[in-house]
């Protein structure tokens, strides 16, 4: 039976309806996934198209990602979770080829996007295990090297293999020669040479260089024969790569070849070996020019020092096995040479470049003058010793100067040519791109040229690295491989190139692996404050040079149809994420990023242009910003604080220097009004350090509105946020980092309850830590608050940061309350120690259960109608304590005796909320604090004593209590199977509702204050059984953190939202593929004439297309590729974006019909004429093919007759001589 007080409370609350009919409309809730923030699995392959400016990334679970301009990003998968081993573009043609671990080749057409993924143009299961892939921009054929030593040719245009063009294993015959010659350690006949790399000649497309584990072969595609073989032999006594022992050093060694790289002039090539050596050879000589390692030349020559080093008396001087790693990849780069023509072209294009839109991504600076005079650069992955620092090495070579014409007695090059070639590969300087972990792969990003093995004139380099041993190893699935980008080439004299920024999805791997993330709504003023000094041009200049694709905004399709009223979604949202490298990063995920700028978006998308491409070019409703948008200027690195001498008193500072893999960020909280950040560090059970960081900027007060500025002034004397210059003096920690640093004149310690630990011992001042970039917006450290380790590993750890400058943290059952405006510790509560009073030691044992939830609010409690900042602390046992913050003599005090009560329905609370009589959440923000201090609230007696409603969510029960500690007014009981995991009060079209997530991967909406279920939504079916950790924003968006590989952004209002990905156009048919100039082809012809002694034909791309295509090549299929993206229609703007023009008088309906008929007839006639031209061209081509086929048959018949005649004559002479 209810008491009169409970009955009155229920009558007051039951008469209210916060959610109203709008919030209780179940059809208004539609759960949909907006974007995937991570790659989903480990990165395995990278490819780049310099013509279109697109970057492709493949993952271990069959995922594919395309990156272009900042708003261009498209993700899809193969349909099966198979690792993708190889990835290659056909440059400029819009085709992407990949080979999975089952050796199935997939080709995707980027010019045809269906259902938010490129159309699968062809798919083929290959007969052999693929070891390497080579694509050419000059013809549509893909070379696929196999483990059986053969090289298959795949026709991308036709989607078939060309069996007549298959290259056989060219090294089988060479191994047979070695066996017959009696060479020691010759491979057995069971050994099958493996093809390790394939590279096409940079100028003569007819020549293909094939690397085998025993050597290198130069294959002629037109004549289908091997022109030359190279064996790279290390003679007895030569040091080689240094991996040999005393037993093998005095024998011949043939280190297996691992990779190849052509010099851009096609005269020489470099071959990497398994022992860490690099061989340089000329295409016109059987012997290598030289063999070297990264640090030493001519390692194929025996020296006296190397021989006697094996017999040295002292162990220090005796030579040991070097354990040098293999050469994994080589890239030989050239650069644009400045000529009179290039200077004239640059001056002519200057006006056009100046007229370029500001939204275009600026290119990286052109290389310095030392690289524009014929120099080349060799980039090397591997070949390092265990003692060497990890990184990518580059060797700069001088230009090649050909000697005077010198005749040679043999088929090889002359001595003068050999010396000139040797001089051209003597390094002028050496540079290293340092990495924290050993690099695993790299790729160069050329500016525009797809030729020369994608190594000509690169402007950037992307490096993938291995697992960092200095970072903590996560138990959840994560991507351990890192990825980073650098500017290229390195400038001589500068020790470190400029590091470039990658797209957001690529930065969440390796050191950037995310361990936690929160989604927050930000007020407009705070959002502008966070974007202060954020220059779009600086953001684009630091990004890797990706210029491909176009993105157009479009509305997201809804599964329930469009409603009559779709509210505008302009609420700014940010993601605050913590990563394993101890960096807290910020990302902007506002819907405005997926909408066209007002200056660019037209008033109407209706156009009178004849083609969609022309209409799109005229209107240009393009997206210009990345989604999610990294706010790199706000990133905060905890390591910069811990490595400062002021933080030497922290245990985490010592651990970072000795055992950095034991540090991890476990919690972070961000105050959206005051822009303050709290970060909690965990060092695996030794100590928990809580570092609180405060945003500091001198002009912060000018950007706050009048209300918030007054609240900050009333909140505390001399607010550091409002006026940093007037902040209270702090003692600088120079030598002795004493943790007792409270502000002057504080009265908090005078009336502080005697705890088991002095509050001054819980704080270390970090205000003297220097900012890494004082010229940029960022966070600066205020102080570190220390908490002891919990009683158990499963004890909860809570952090709650209020927008009024208060911080609360708990570790197990220990509670700490701090004032950040001092900063100082207001309360340190340890319930395991018995309290002391006036009558001596108390006999009652305090509640030692762990704290499960913390909540700051500005509200009254029960019969206490004073609105003050209060902290609601709930414990696992159901005990609730409410601490009041009081402002006395300019300082803040924590109440010595908190309001304490207990409810069974509050046990193990996961979230609590305090609502006012209108349904608004009573948050601890500056506005409510100012109203509380000025007593601007309405008296509670006008509402019958009703001042607040406390909503508590536990895993099993949701309850509502009158005036926080009053009677219960509503309750919802669940079951253990669908236990709640998180909850938040969400404004649904302005009406508050309660959103809770369950362990069964469902989301439940409840009305307020009755707590009746409105609807239940389920996540899409997936392989993940756990819903993960969900952060719910105030507008209904959710951030689902399943593991570091699966971080997704959802919304419960999937109606009328901008679509992600937007409407994309990845392939631009108007961009031509740069061709090799006639000067280069002529130079190649002259070089071959000079070296071979006769004029040799240089084949072009069309010639190779005909040769590799074969005689029975079928016609290419007709592909319906999109030429332009269709933008969505937006509401007509009230303010025209362009000056109004005079409209022509409207025509009558008859004239309109006549005009339409004439236009249709004209377009039909034009299409028929074009069809006739196509048919004529096709007939002419078929006739030419028929003539060529007849000529080929006649030539074949003639050759066969000649060979038969030769055989007859030979047999006759043989029989005659045998007599």
Automatic annotation (TrEMBL):
Keywords: Coiled coil, Cytoplasm, Exocytosis. It is found in: Cytoplasm. Residues 1123-1146 have a biased composition (Low complexity). Its main location: cytoplasm. Gene3D superfamilies: YVTN repeat-like/Quinoprotein amine dehydrogenase. One of its GO terms (cellular component) is plasma membrane. Belongs to the WD repeat L(2)GL family. This is BZ3500_MvSof-1268-A1-R1_Chr6-1g08379 protein.
């Amino acid at each position: 039976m209810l008491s009169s007080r409970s009955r009155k409370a229920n009558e007051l609350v039951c008469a209210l309806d916060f959610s109203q009919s709008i919030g209780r409309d179940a059809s208004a809730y539609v759960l949909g996934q907006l974007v995937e923030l991570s790659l989903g699995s480990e990165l395995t392959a990278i490819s780049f198209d310099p013509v279109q400016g697109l970057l492709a990334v493949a993952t271990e679970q069959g995922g594919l990602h395309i990156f272009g301009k900042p708003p261009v990003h498209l993700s899809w998968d193969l349909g099966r979770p198979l690792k993708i081993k190889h990835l290659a573009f056909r440059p400029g043609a819009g085709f992407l080829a990949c080979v999975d671990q089952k050796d199935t080749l997939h080709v995707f057409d980027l010019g045809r996007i269906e259902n938010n993924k490129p159309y699968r143009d062809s798919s083929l299961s290959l007969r052999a295990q693929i070891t390497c892939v080579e694509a050419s921009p000059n013809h549509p054929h893909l070379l696929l090297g196999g483990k059986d030593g053969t090289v298959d040719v795949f026709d991308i245009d036709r989607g078939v293999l060309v069996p007549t063009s298959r290259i056989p294993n060219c090294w089988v015959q060479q191994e047979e020669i070695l066996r017959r010659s009696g060479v020691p350690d010759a491979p057995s006949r069971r050994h099958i040479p493996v093809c390790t790399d394939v590279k096409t000649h940079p100028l003569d497309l007819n020549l293909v260089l094939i690397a085998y584990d025993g050597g290198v072969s130069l294959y002629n595609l037109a004549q289908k024969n091997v022109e030359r073989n190279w064996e790279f032999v290390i003679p007895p006594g030569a040091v080689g790569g240094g991996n040999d022992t005393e037993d093998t050093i005095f024998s011949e060694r043939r280190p297996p070849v691992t990779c190849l790289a052509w010099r851009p002039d096609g005269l020489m090539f470099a071959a990497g070996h398994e022992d860490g050596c690099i061989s340089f050879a000329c295409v016109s000589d059987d012997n290598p020019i030289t063999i070297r390692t990264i640090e030493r030349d001519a390692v194929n020559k025996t020296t006296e020092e190397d021989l006697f080093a094996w017999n040295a008396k002292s162990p220090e001087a005796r030579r040991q096995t070097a354990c040098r790693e293999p050469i994994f990849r080589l890239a030989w780069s050239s650069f644009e040479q400045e000529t009179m023509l290039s200077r004239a072209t640059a001056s002519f294009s200057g006006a056009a470049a100046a007229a370029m839109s500001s939204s275009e991504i600026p290119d990286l600076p052109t290389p310095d003058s030392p690289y524009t005079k014929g120099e080349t650069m060799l980039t090397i992955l591997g070949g390092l010793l265990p003692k060497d620092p990890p990184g990518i090495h580059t060797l700069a070579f001088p230009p090649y100067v050909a000697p005077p014409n010198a005749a040679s007695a043999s088929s090889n090059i002359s001595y003068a040519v050999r010396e000139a070639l040797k001089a051209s590969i003597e390094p002028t300087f050496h540079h290293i791109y340092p990495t924290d972990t050993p690099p695993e792969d790299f790729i160069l990003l050329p500016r525009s040229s797809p030729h020369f093995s994608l190594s000509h004139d690169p402007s950037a380099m992307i490096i993938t690295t291995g697992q960092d041993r200095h970072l903590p190893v996560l138990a959840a699935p994560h991507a351990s491989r890192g990825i980073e980008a650098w500017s290229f080439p390195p400038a001589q004299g500068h020790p470190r190139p400029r590091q470039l920024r990658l797209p957001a999805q690529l930065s969440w791997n390796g050191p950037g692996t995310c361990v936690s993330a929160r989604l927050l709504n930000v007020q407009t003023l705070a959002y502008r404050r966070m974007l202060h000094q954020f220059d779009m041009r600086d953001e684009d200049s630091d990004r890797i040079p990706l210029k491909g694709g176009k993105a157009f905004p479009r509305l997201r399709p809804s599964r329930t149809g469009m409603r009559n009223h779709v509210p505008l979604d302009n609420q700014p949202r940010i993601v605050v994420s913590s990563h394993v490298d101890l960096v807290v990063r910020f990302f902007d995920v506002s819907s405005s990023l997926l909408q066209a700028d007002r200056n660019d978006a037209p008033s109407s998308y209706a156009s009178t242009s004849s083609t969609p491409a022309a209409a799109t070019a005229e209107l240009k409703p393009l997206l210009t910003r990345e989604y999610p948008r990294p706010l790199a200027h706000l990133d905060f690195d905890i390591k910069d604080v811990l490595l400062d001498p002021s933080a030497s008193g922290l245990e985490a500072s010592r651990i970072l220097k000795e055992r950095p893999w034991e540090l991890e960020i476990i919690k972070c909280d961000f105050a959206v009004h005051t822009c303050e950040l709290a970060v909690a560090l965990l060092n695996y059970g030794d100590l928990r350090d809580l570092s609180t960081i405060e945003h500091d900027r001198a002009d912060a007060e000018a950007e706050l509105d009048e209300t918030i500025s007054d609240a900050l002034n009333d909140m505390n004397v001399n607010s550091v946020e409002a006026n940093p210059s007037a902040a209270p003096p702090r003692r600088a920690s120079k030598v002795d980092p004493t943790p007792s640093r409270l502000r002057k004149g504080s009265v908090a310690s005078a009336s502080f309850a005697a705890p088991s630990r002095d509050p001054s011992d819980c704080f270390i001042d970090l205000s003297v830590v220097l900012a890494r970039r004082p010229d940029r917006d960022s966070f600066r450290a205020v102080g570190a608050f220390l908490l002891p380790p919990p009683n158990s590993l499963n004890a909860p750890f809570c952090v709650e940061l209020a927008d009024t400058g208060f911080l609360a943290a708990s570790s197990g059952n220990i509670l700490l309350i701090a004032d950040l405006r001092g900063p100082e510790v207001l309360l340190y509560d340890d319930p395991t120690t018995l309290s002391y009073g006036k009558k001596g030691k108390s006999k009652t044992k305090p509640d030692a259960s762990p704290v499960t939830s913390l909540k700051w609010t500005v509200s009254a409690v029960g019969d206490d109608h004073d609105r003050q900042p209060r902290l609601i602390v709930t414990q696992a046992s159901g005990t609730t304590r409410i601490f009041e913050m009081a402002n006395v003599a300019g300082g803040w005090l924590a109440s010595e005796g908190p309001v304490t009560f207990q409810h069974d329905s509050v046990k193990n609370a996961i979230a609590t909320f305090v609502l006012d009589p209108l349904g608004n959440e009573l948050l601890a923000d500056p506005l409510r604090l100012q109203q509380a201090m000025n007593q601007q609230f309405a008296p509670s007696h006008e509402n019958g004593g009703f001042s607040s409603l406390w909503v508590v969510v536990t895993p099993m029960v949701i309850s509502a209590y009158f005036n926080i500690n009053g009677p219960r007014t509503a309750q919802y009981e669940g079951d253990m199977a669908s236990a709640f995991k998180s909850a938040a009060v969400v404004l649904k079209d302005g009406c508050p509702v309660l959103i809770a997530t369950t362990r069964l991967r469902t989301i439940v909406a409840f009305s307020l204050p009755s707590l009746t279920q409105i609807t239940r939504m389920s996540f899409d079916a997936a392989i993940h059984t756990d819903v993960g950790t969900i952060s719910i924003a105030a507008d209904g968006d959710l951030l689902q953190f399943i593991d570091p590989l699966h971080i997704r952004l959802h919304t419960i209002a999937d109606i009328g939202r901008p679509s992600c990905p937007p409407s994309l156009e990845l392939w631009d048919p108007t961009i031509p593929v740069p061709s090799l100039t006639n000067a280069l082809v002529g130079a190649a012809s002259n070089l071959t004439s000079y070296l071979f002694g006769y004029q040799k034909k240089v084949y072009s791309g069309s010639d190779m297309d005909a040769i590799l295509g074969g005689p029975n090549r079928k016609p290419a299929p007709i592909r319906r590729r999109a030429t332009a993206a269709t933008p969505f229609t937006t509401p007509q703007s009230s303010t025209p974006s362009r000056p109004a023009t005079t409209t022509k008088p409207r025509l009558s309906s008859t004239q309109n019909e006549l005009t339409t008929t004439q236009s249709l007839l004209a377009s039909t006639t034009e299409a028929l004429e074009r069809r006739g031209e196509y048919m004529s061209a096709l007939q002419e081509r078929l006739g030419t093919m028929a003539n060529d086929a007849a000529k080929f048959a006649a030539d074949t018949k003639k050759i066969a007759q000649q060979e038969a005649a030769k055989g007859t004559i030979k047999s006759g002479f043989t029989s005659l001589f045998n007599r």
